[in-house]
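Researcher: We're teaching a course module on how sequence relates to structure. For the next exercise, students receive a sequence and then see the predicted structure as tokens, so they can try to spot secondary structure elements on their own. Here is the exercise chain.
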Amino acid sequence: MDFFTHFLVPFIVLFALKSKNKLEGAFGGISLDFDTIFITWIGFLVPYLFVFSHRGITHSFIFAGVSSTLFLFIISRKQINGFIGKIIRRDISVKFNFKTVGIAYFGALIHLFLDCLTSRGIPLLYPFTLERFSAEIYYYIDITTAIIALIVIFILYLKLDMKYKKVAMVVFMIILISFGGVRAYEKVNAIDDNHVTGNFTQITAYPTNDIFRWTIVESDSKNSNYYSFKYNTLNKEKLDSKRIQNLTVIGGSVQSAQEAISKADKLPEIQNFRWDAYYTCINASYNGKEWKLIYFDVVDTGYHSNNITVIIP
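Model: And here is the predicted structure for the students to work with:
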């Protein structure tokens, strides 16, 4: 979900609860996404620590608490909020105590919930598991929602009568929930309109940036073959249909290819790719001296690189 929505939703919820610490919750809501500034360089410099990335370590129950607490501590310093306040010409002073730390964590939990609705989700239970959790309803960032959230924040910034601000917040929440409801409904439609055939036993729908277009993937029980296509729920149209094998081997034996894959799977860049991918497939080709392994994802979201190539002697 986008930065503005992460700020706005906890602010509105706390406003409805008549809390005096709405900003603390809102800052907690955006604190997790500052991983793009403060920790992604760790994963870049040390590839084995790929969990230090956006929507990585900070987006778990445990480290969300750490992130929101640290962020609230920093933003509560007079030098920091005073400097920002002068720039935006508004008082953003917040308190740092046990109560506000809990409220900031509440905002962070709302952040986790919203990101769990989006593509590929988050490692909610890290460090116990790297598994990502997602309802796969929203695309990574819904541009329409982001624009509306920004407009509402601007309305809250203006010195308007509170009744207009209340209306703006109510309208935003109605739109956000409605969009989610429509997306969930269309996902069910996309699956119901396409039944598994042949040897395929499972079917899943993944969101795109178009609310009515979904990526459908059918797979067999061993996840060795896939059937993938784009499906438009409005006109019932299929596009970009393709059948994909989990492993394709050219120029060498399957056993030799699997040995090369075992070596490649130990590389941090491959571990990172597998962590980001929905369904990892491999095209393996041997030229007599070395294996060229092309890892790719059945689901091409357009958000991450869809393939990576490694050479194994």
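Model: If you want an answer key for the exercise: The mean pLDDT is 94. The beta strands are 202-207, 213-219, 225-232, 237-245, 247-250, 280-286, 291-297, 307-312.
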